[in-house]
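Hi C.,

You asked whether I'd gotten around to modeling the 360-residue construct. I have! Everything is below, sequence then structure, no commentary in between.
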Amino acid sequence: MSNISTTTIDPMIVNLNIARAGIQRYGQPLLFSIGIIGCILNIAIFLRPTMKQNSCAIYFHASSWANLFCLCWGVLASMLAFMTNNNPASYNVLYCKLRFFMINLAQYSSRAFIVLACLDRYCLCSTSVRQRNLCRANVAKKVVLLATFVSACLAIYVLISYGPVKGVLPCMVTTDAASIYETISFYLFTFTIPTLSMSVLSWLTVRRLKANAKRVGREKIGVVGKDIQLSGMLIAQVVLYLVTNVPYVSIILYGKITENIPASSRSSYRTAIESFLSTLLASFFYYCYNGWSFFVYTLTAPSFRRELITIILPRQWSQRLRHHNENRTMSRTFRVHPFQQSVATVTLKNATKMHETSHH
């Protein structure tokens, strides 16, 4: 008689593997499609004449380009590697270096531009004329170029030290010195500094806006409605950054802590959970920050929605819709302040009577 051994696979492990494959097969293409369309619309809107002379909109415009590159080199490349079962990063040195250099450059730049936008809104609400002079379009364009150069310098180590390896990650650092630098730069420039800068500057900006609302006369700073809406867009973008990046940093920190645990001492259930969370947080959720900015802007800023309607709808339709919104605003104003309308009517009647009396 022959001994027949059967192995029973835990249904939970099977479900986790199916869910992991579903993220790569369906989640990444959906995120990429939505993100690319959103980035293109963002770029088109921030190139509008009403937007491109605003310093904060210039930082948003630059961030949209950085997000576009993140989605292409990060999500699209990973998606194609999974669908074709062929990852060039595992054997092509040039592609390995170029892909991860572009991902790091785009991610550093995207965060830097949002931090600069926070600083721009903070300076705009200042009582100092010198600080407000920094919120100009020509200054913003120069700062964008400088931030891009600094981001490229931070990511240059990838071109020097990355290469194909046989391991969990097919392309990664190949020297100990580069590994130490990558760990430090990741926690400093990808999470710690951007998170603290965005949070503190956003809080200080809100405080300045509230303080400015209490001022009267010449002491009050002239902050127009569009600038306030851009501040709202910025705060919503900061919230999106925190929500999508904290889980990613947590899984990376967990990987660093447990990297010395041998695979033989890990159960198959634990391995399945770790693989699922790594795919969900590192390959999908991490890039939601790059792909969802369009929806954040659309939900938080009426001026952004108006520019979007102008781009999508024909010119006659957009003008008709704009007139309709203006009429609704005027009628709402009369409903809220009927006394103003009645006073104007009484004044007109009195003026008519005086004119008739003078003729008699």
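If it helps when you're writing up: The longest strand covers residues 162-164.

Thanks,
B.
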